[in-house]
Amino acid sequence: MYRWHLPGPHGYIEDVLRALRDGFNVVCAVPAHGVSGLGEALKSRLLSDGWALGGHFRPDDSNPMSQLYNWLDIADVGQTRRSITSIIQGMVPAAAVIVDGIQLQSWKDWKQLITAYEATSRNVPRSDRPLLIAVVEGVPEIDLGRNLAALKNLPWQNVVGEFDVMLYALEQIRSAGRRSNKSRLAARIVARLALWDFDLANQLVAMNESQLFEPLDCLRIATQHLVVPDSFSACWESGGMMQFDGVSLVHPYLLLSDAAKAGILRLRLWEALASDLLPVIETKRHDWAQEMRTLIRVPVQLGDQVFNDVDELEIGQLAFLAKQRNLSSRIRQGTEKLRRYRNKLAHIEPLSYAEAFDTDLRTYSWN
Fold first, then answer.
1. What is the model's pTM?
2. Which tens digits make up the pLDDT trace of 73-110?
3. CA-CA distance, 333 to 27, in Å (whole number)?
4. Are 63 and 113 in contact (CB under 8 A)?
5. Which helix (H) or strand (E) holds 115?
6. Are 75 and 24 in contact (CB under 8 A)?
């Protein structure tokens, strides 16, 4: 699946387009690592929506004003000093110009130009205003500046969530012809381990499902195929920390080098397993209760509690009764196994690969 069509990234592009339609110049701020191709995605969307595109340019470290003059082929007039007014007059009305990839070392100069451009562009009616879209990489959010009357800052923060990555991973798995009952859980594990990093998700998707149950090992394998930059650190601008579904999380690469934090990766694996398997376990508990209903007379007293329906019993209580009443070995073993799985997840302990994909979990009496 094209990642820019996923709900989160698609929503971000919609925010940019909405700001442009309202007459705002836009600063699209992304981390230095982990988000690639935004400028191209914006260009594609603008053209498909019928916008006049004044250009899609990659900046260098030279003077921003000079770069705009050269890109837009604006001629110098005599001894007249170069100005923002001349740039706006030389642009197609209502056109959008994408400056894609402004780096931290150039941001101070570009910020001055964008601020001046914003002030001058206010004099042009919104319907005719040529607009700048600046894709800025690796600049701290605090250094972006504030929103102005004709300028909106849109940092790439809390854009990608678990649903986006899970949907992406599931589509990648299915595209590879690996359709099975393991696909959904595998995609959920990939989403919890890769977080917002689609390149990492690609590497994890290519692995055997059993490898995903050893987060440290599978991530170390992934780093052999991906470049982990030296500047990677636990901050938004480097791509090492991001809000993911509203929670600030550290990129998994940064957990590999710190043994004290390696347990966080196991916790993320557990989160994926618990969210997928606890409903499955509860459904299977209900199935066992239905089967045991004709074998256990109610009311049942366990300690100080009295139960008038077998379906009110937790799996541990069902396993206890199956053993106490010496029910069939199939029921005793099945309820005890389910109790063990439920107990592990309840104590924040991931199931093993064999346990998570135990076919008994998804085999019901009504099948």
1. 0.91
2. 998 877 678 899 999 998 999 999 999 999 999 999 99
3. 61
4. no
5. helix 104-121
6. no
